[in-house]
Amino acid sequence: MSSKKSHNSDSGKALVLKKLVESLTLEINAIAQYHSFAINCKPVDFRSAKVAELFQHLAADETGDLKIFIEWINNLGGTVDESLPVKMELVTDPVKMLKMAIEMEKGAVRKYREVLKALKTIEEEEFYSEGLFHAIIHIITDEQEHIRKCELLLD
Question: Which of 27, 75, 111, 130 could form a disulfide with 66 if both were Cys (CB 3.0 to 4.6 A apart)?
Answer without folding.
Answer: 27
